[in-house]
Amino acid sequence: MKSIPIPFNGNPSPYAIRGKYDLLMEFTDGTYGIIDCKFQGKDNDKSEFYAPQLEAYAFALENPASGNPMKISVMGLLVWSPKKPVGNPDSGFNLELNSSWFPIKRDPDALQSRLGEFITMISGPTPTKDSSCETCKFISDRREVFGAE
User: Fold this and answer.
1) Boundaries of every domain in the chain
2) Cα-based distances in Å from 111 to 55, 75, 118
């Protein structure tokens, strides 16, 4: 999926959101739900970490570059984690899993703020090569290692 250009300071920016969601559900009221599937070693809630990713998917689905917009009313993580191994050498082994649902509250303003900060940063002036910028040092060192200029 691909979104329209991300609005920035009241104008379309040169950037869009692209991605692939795991599951999309259609509800009887005509709205949709985005489900991101995770397999984790432990059954813990990482919805806060993944919230920007799902909100970005929601933006792209509600503001598509082509096709009809889809209103997103539900977002969340479906998490599977190992419970115990089951089976035997004769029949084979399998894994019994826990499954948990962690809802994610919509926050389009937080996404817009985060995208605005990102667009401001990448649209700003490029630091000089001899600056104290740690990213510049990393890129310069990497180019030396790989022989790129």
Assistant:
1) 7-146
2) 7, 14, 10
The predicted-structure confidence for 52-67, as pLDDT tens digits, reads as follows 999 999 999 999 999 9
Could you give the CA distance from residue 55 to residue 109 in angstroms, rounded to a whole number? Answer: 10
Whether the predicted pLDDT of 9 surpasses 60: yes
Q: Report the pLDDT value the prediction gives residue 143, as an integer from 0 to 100.
A: 61
Structure tokens at 130: 């001899």
